[in-house]
Amino acid sequence: MKLDMKIDNALDAKNISGIENSNLKVISELYEGDVEIFGNDILTSIQDENKIQSLNSLFKYLLIISKKEISITSRDIIYIKNLLDNNKETQILTLYEDRKVVCYLLNNKPIYPKTIRQIEYIKALDNKDLIFGIGPAGTGKTFLAVCHAVNSLKKGIVKKIILTRPAVEAGESLGFLPGDLKEKIDPYLRPLYDALYDTLGLDSTNQLIEKGIIEIAPLAYMRGRTLENAYIILDEAQNTTDKQMKMFLTRLGFNSKMVITGDVSQTYLP
After folding, report:
1. At what angle do helices 116-127 and 141-154 cross, to 10 degrees?
2. What's the pLDDT tens digit per position in 204-233?
3. How far are the Cα atoms of 66, 93, 170, 244 from residue 268, in angstroms, in the given order?
4. Whether 220 contacts 205, CB under 8 Å
5. What is the DSSP annotation of 15-54?
6. Are residues 3 and 42 in contact, defined by beta-carbon separation less than 8 angstroms?
7. For 41, phi and psi rounded to 5 degrees?
8. Contact indicator for 151, 200 with CB cutoff of 8 Å
9. Neighbours of 269 (CB within 10 A)
10. N or C: which end of the chain has fewer CB within 10 A?
């Protein structure tokens, strides 16, 4: 059967369909029935009225998004379907109308917030001096904070980026790792390096670290300092003790921003 929706533009049809119809395959899986685009028409084998209504709504929003020249991914489709299922249609346009570039990767690919919560997170990073980002792994807490920090550094809002995390062992002992202290600590700080390499590149990151403009250090190295004109990110904060957290929070100086990220379900403290 045909849906009421029609797609009047070949570029929109291509964008909604995805590479080799990958988006249509995701839609077919989500709705448990065949969905395809033929010419201007959307065809489906689905008969259930509720699913048809939801499918019409999904394509309506996909078409609106496509008109904004936003490349549609399977992640977008899954997220929009979830919002539709939870009667949160108003948030769909909010997500795509309020999208702003957080930063650009090395290949000039723009990084946007991908969920409503990420939009709220970015707004907090823009407007607050102390931000807690709490959530499960893979939700962009650290990566978006590092992107925002790099952007702030490039704009001259801050003069320095400080990235830190507690070196808490997760089954292995630091003493048994080879190398000096830096070589022992670096594996714990690797996610922070990775985010910097994505946004600045390997050479630029290393040059800024050598100049002291970017500092990556274990949490213990923050003791006794007052951090001014800096963008400070504490990653894996669920592994800090109360005393460590108090020590860290009292490092905040003038014209500085402090972001604390963590996943409370993944603590390795005894």
Report:
1. 40
2. 999 999 999 999 888 888 888 888 999 999
3. 44, 39, 6, 15
4. no
5. HHH-GGGHHHHHHHHHHTS-EEEETTEEEE----HHHHHH
6. yes
7. -100, 150
8. no
9. 9
10. C
In sequence order, what E strands does 73-189 have? 103-104, 110-111, 130-134, 160-165
Q: Which residues of 196-222 are buried (b: 16+ CB within 10 A; e: fewer)?
A: bbbbbeeeebeebeeeeebbbebbeeb
Task: Provide φ and ψ at 113, rounded to 5°.
Answer: -65, 140
Secondary structure element (H or E) that encloses residue 95, with its range: helix 89-97
260, 126, 147, 153: which is closest to 213 by C-alpha? Answer: 153
SS3 72: coil
What's 88's DSSP letter? Answer: -
Residue from 195, 199, 235, 243 nearest 217 by CA: 235
Q: CA-CA distance, 147 to 206, in Å (whole number)?
A: 17
Partners of 162 in the β-ladder: 215, 232
Alpha carbon distance 40, 9 (integer Å): 8
Q: What SS3 state is found at 104?
A: strand
User: What radius of gyration do the chain's Cα atoms show?
Assistant: 23
Q: What is the pTM of this model?
A: 0.79
- Which candidate, 240, 248, 194, 252, places its Cα nearest to that of 221? 248
- Whether 235 and 163 have beta carbons less than 8 Å apart is answered as yes
